[in-house]
Design goal:
Radius of gyration: 19 Å
Shape: elongated
Number of helices: 3
Number of domains: 1
Largest sheet: none
Strand content: under 5%
Structural class: mainly alpha
Length: 65
């Protein structure tokens, strides 16, 4: 689990501190982890999705050459 700490600077508004907190959460990948773990996916489904993404990357790279 990732711990993100934000200290309030002198004269800084709560809105500004909240914005910094959200940015750090996004950079740390917290939102991505929550979204991924929000539902159960069978291992076979995960492999199928990974395989399709690999094919998509290969097609994209092939067109760049």
């Amino acid at each position: 689990m990732k711990v993100i700490v934000i200290t309030l600077r002198d004269g800084e508004s709560i809105d500004r501190a909240l914005r910094r907190f959200k940015q750090r959460c996004q950079r740390a990948g917290v939102y991505r982890d929550v979204k991924r773990k929000s539902f159960y996916m069978k291992p076979s489904e995960e492999r199928k999705i990974a395989k399709n993404l690999a094919k998509k990357r290969q097609r994209k790279n092939r067109h760049l050459l």
